[in-house]
Amino acid sequence: MTNIEDIKNALWAGANTFRDSIDAANYKDYVLSMLFVKYLSDTYKESVENLKKEYFGIRLERQIENLPFCLKREHTFEYIDENKYANDIGTKISEALTGIESSNPILAGIFRGIDFNSEANLGKKEQKNPMLRNLIEDFENLDLRPSMIETNGEQVPSDVIGDAYEYMIGEFATMAGKKAGSFFTPQEVSEIMAQIVNPQPGDRIYDPTCGSGSLLIRAARRGGFNNVQIYGQEVSSSAISMARMNMFIHDIKDAKIAWGDTLASPQHLDSDGNLMKFECIVANMPFSKDKWAAGFNPRGEVSTENDKNRKKVEFKMEPSLDKFHRFDYGIPPASKGDWAFLMHMIASMSGNGRIAAVAPHGVLFRGASEGKIRSEIIQKNLIDAVIGLPENIFYGTSIPACILIFKKGKRNSDILFIDASKEYGKEKSKNKLTPNNIKKIVETYKRYINGENVEEKKYSHIASREEIKENDYNLNIPRYIETYEEEKFIDIEKINIDIDKLREQISITENEIDECLRELGI
C-alpha cells in the first residue's frame, strides 16, 4: 500500500533532482506535473482493468470511452519511463502532455506553459536529459492506483494524494522565497477564512486571485465538494496549471478556473454579461500591486491635440473605463491595487455574500483616495470585521497582514476588531498559527455575529459606527485595541541584595575549592 509519506518522499526526491540547478519557483512545475501524469496513468490503468472484469469487445470500448478521461499508451507514464534514456526525452514528455490535453477536453490547457524541452529552464541536453531521467525514476516505483492508496478514517484515495500535493506546494513556497506569496496561502490562514465564510450547500465559492487553488479547496471542503460550486481566476499560467491539477487530484472535476487579469478582464460573468455573484469569496490577493490598471489601457493612451507631433501621455484610470462599475466609490492609487481587488470582490458579492480577504495593514489607514473609498464602504455597512495576524506567517514576506471580512445584509453597524498578532507558535524560521490560535479567532468572530459581547482586553473590541467616524474612518487596529505592554517593575534594592548573596556564595565555593586543591597538594 502507498501512504502519504511515500508520496511526499517521491515529491521530495523530485525536488532534490532539480535543487541547485534551477530555481524552486520554476522546478515546482516539472515535479508536480510528473506526479500528475503518474496519477493519471495509474488511475486510468486501474479503471480499465476493472472494466475488463465485467465487459469485453465493443461494450468494453464504449465503457472505456465513458471514463472521465482516457490515455493513449504514448501519453502514459509507463511510455515515458520506457523512453527515459531517449536522446529526445524532453520532447517525448512534452508531446505526452500535449496528447493528454488534446484527447481530453476536461484537461485542455492544464499543462499550460510547462515545457519539458525548455533549454531556458532546464539547460541543454547534456544537463537536461540526466535531470529528466532522474525525475522519472523518482516516481517510477510510486503506485498511485486508487486501490493501493492507504487511507485513514473517512479519507478517500483522492484526499491522500491531494493532501500530499498541497503539502509539496507549501514546501515549494518555502523554497521559492519572494515569488511564493503569489501561489500559496498558509493552510492555517486558509482554515480561518474557510470557517468564517462558512460555505453552505448550494453556495458558489470564488477566489479572484486563486493561485494554486489551495484556499479555494479549503473553503469548498467545509461546504462539501459535492454541495458547492467552485470558481477561480488567476493571471499566472504556472499557477493556473497548479490550481487545475490540484482540483483534479482532489476529484473536483467541475471547478471553473479561468485564466486572465481579474481586474481588466473578469472571466466569470452571468448570461447578461454582468459580474457573476457569489455567496462566498476568499482571496489572498497580490499586496499593493503596482500598475494594477494597465489592462484598462492595452494600446497606450496618446494625445491627439497636435496630429503632427503625437506624443504618449500618462494613462489615468477613471471609473467610466470599467463597465462593471466596480470603482464608483473611487479609484485606488496607481501603485497600490489593494482596494481595486477588494472592490472587485464587493461587486461580486451576492445578496447574502461573505468575503474573507488577506490584505496588508495599509488598506486600514492609508488616506487620500483609499481613505475616501474606505469611508464610503464603511458607510454602506459592508465591513464586518478586521483581524490582525502575526508577522512572518506568509510566504515571500515577513510583514504582518490582516484578514478583512465583508458582509451584505449585516444586522448591526458595528465592526469587530481582533488583534491576533501575538497568537502564534514557532516552526523553523516561520511563525505559525496553532490550532488553539485558530479556534480562538474563529470562536470570537462567531460569538460576535451571534450578538454576544466578545470584548477582551488587548485582544478584541467591537467598535460602533460613531467611534469609527470619530477616528475619521481609520481602521488601524491599535486605534481600537490597546496593545501597550507595561514594563515590569524592577526592584533595584532586592537585586542588590541578591547580588550580595551570590557574591557570598561564590566566596564560600572558592574557599572550598582552594581547600580541596591544598589537600591534593596542588
Summarize this structure briefly.
This protein has about 525 residues and is an alpha/beta fold.
Verbal overview:
With 522 residues, the protein is an alpha/beta fold. It folds into three domains: 4-176, Up-down Bundle (Ferritin), CATH 1.20.1260; 187-294 and 317-361 and 377-464, Rossmann fold, CATH 3.40.50.150; 489-522. The chain is built from 17 helices and eleven strands. The strands form two sheets. It has a nine-stranded mixed sheet with strand order 3-2-1-4-5-7-6-8-11. Strands 9-10 form a two-stranded antiparallel sheet. The N and C termini lie far apart (69 Å). The model has no long low-confidence stretch (mean pLDDT 91).
SSE map:
Blueprint: H1 4-18, H2 24-52, H3 57-65, H4 77-82, H5 89-103, H6 119-122, H7 125-139, H8 157-176, H9 187-197, E1 204-207, H10 214-223, E2 229-234, H11 237-249, E3 256-259, E4 278-284, H12 338-347, E5 349-360, H13 362-365, H14 368-379, E6 383-388, E7 401-407, E8 415-419, E9 425-427, E10 430-432, H15 435-449, E11 460-463, H16 465-470, H17 492-519
Parallel strand pairs: 1-2, 1-4, 2-3, 4-5, 6-8
Antiparallel strand pairs: 5-7, 6-7, 8-11, 9-10
Helix pairs in contact: 1-2, 1-7, 1-8, 2-8, 2-11, 9-10, 9-15
Task: Look at the structure and name the CATH superfamily of the largest domain.
Answer: Vaccinia Virus protein VP39
Helices and strands, in order, run as HHHHHHHHHEHEHEEHEHHEEEEEHEHH
Q: What structural class do you assign from the helix and strand content?
A: alpha/beta
The main sheet comes to:
9 strands, mixed
Helical fraction equals: 40-55%
